Amino acid sequence: MAGNSSSNLNIIVRKNPSESHLSELGIKSWPKWGCSPGKYQLKFDAQETCYLLRGKVRVYLKNSSEVISEFGAGDLVILPEGLSCTWDVSVAVDKHYKFESSSSS
Is the pLDDT of residue 3 over 50? Predict the structure, then answer.
């Protein structure tokens, strides 16, 4: 079991991904999720890739005031498995998302 190694869980943000890259990923067929402004405690049990159609998010490490990432509309974001964090949503979020299945059968 890995200990509290959350410091190496990097969030990857790709600004303005190309239309061809987005269609290659098949983003339009991914499920959608949205939330209104507020603070949300989130834990990622699997790696998630998401594309923000709208919104503005600042991400803090769980129980910390350290901002580890910021992203918003038009960004392609990869959230690592095992990440526990707080999303501080200043503009309502609407996103497509996809979880990587841990069972690579």
Answer: no
